[in-house]
Write a structure and sequence with these properties.
alpha/beta; Nucleotidyltransferase, domain 5; 5 helices; about 35% helix
Length: about 140
């Protein structure tokens, strides 16, 4: 993927986001971190306070109630916050072109929250989990996409 000079590249997963700026050109990437944010990635069992409940059935007896997945809810909230940051930067004219790299589930959640200005600047997406990879691997993955 050719990414123009001064483009923003967001690399995110459900708990970490990295904003890069391409200081290279469209042939040779040179990603420089502009901003980074990470939330604690706690297992669901550590977030919950109690076990799933039971409730009476209309036909008698009790039925189990599905447990909420608090870990997933935290990932969704974090993706929404990342999209809001992108939207703010797009509305402020902080970038002309954008590339987003995220696992498919996070990418889908981000798309739900893009502003029209963000969508206009979005030049590409890569559905991969690279948030915990070194910069040279991220650059290689983008160059090969």
């Amino acid at each position: 993927m050719q990414i123009p000079h001064d483009s923003v590249v967001l690399v995110a997963d459900g708990a970490k986001m990295l904003f890069f700026r391409n200081q290279g050109d469209d042939q040779f990437l040179k990603l420089v971190v502009e901003e980074a944010d990470q939330q604690r990635d706690e297992p669901d069992r550590d977030i919950k306070t109690d076990a799933a409940g039971r409730m009476p059935r209309t036909t008698g007896g009790n039925a189990a109630v599905d447990e909420a997945d608090f870990h997933r809810q935290a990932e969704v909230r974090f993706a929404r916050e990342a999209a809001e940051m992108l939207n703010g930067r797009a509305l402020a004219g902080n970038f002309d072109s954008l590339v987003v790299v995220a696992p498919p589930r996070t990418l889908g959640e981000l798309r739900k929250h893009y502003h029209k200005e963000t969508e206009k600047r979005l030049m590409g997406e890569l559905a991969k989990d690279l948030a915990n990879q070194p910069v040279d691997r991220i650059e290689a993955a983008l160059a090969g996409a």
